[in-house]
Amino acid sequence: GDSVWGLAYDSVLCLNSMAEVLGHPEDVKHWNSTFNFNSSQQAFRDAWEKDTPGMYGDTKNGMGFWNIAPAGVSAFPREYVETMAKKWMDDSSNGFFAKVPLTSLALKDWPQHVDQDFGVVPDANWLMLRTLYRHNVDGLANKFTLAHFKQYHFQQGQPVAPEGRHPDADFSMFGDQYNNFNAGKIQLLLEGIGG
Length: 195
Known about the structure:
Layout: H1 8-21, H2 26-33, H3 40-47, H4 65-68, H5 78-89, H6 110-113, H7 122-134, H8 138-152, E1 154-155, E2 158-159, E3 164-165, E4 173-174, H9 185-193
């Protein structure tokens, strides 16, 4: 079945565990049929560096958080995550580490593909940063998380939680300035940095 960036993989693992614990092992077959476990590793290999060295998936229409989000699956190869983090997420010229990190779209693709509202958004940051913590790429995860909180969540010294930031020179805020989309990033502080 369909899945948001493959995250159903881990959901099925949890459902399998629940079926076993609750004494319904026959349910495992059903849950496994909802996600193709047997081909997942091959699918990861096939999409690795498909268009761009050091990046996962199709990047013909720009390289964005949607290329990194599938790496949040527990079975995703850690070495791919580490490569994406070092080569692209930590790159302030062509990658995702802008003045307000992490951008939704790689900086190299802004001239052709950037959305005028969604230069930096909370859900994209949660998906990318969660991926790094999930695969224990902690040094860069901490660097990006702290930089994101420091730059995204303060405006003239005041705390804010904007819906997003425009891809302009100042990364100006848009939308609700106390937006609940940002609440998920608390998990990054508690479980990521806090351990």
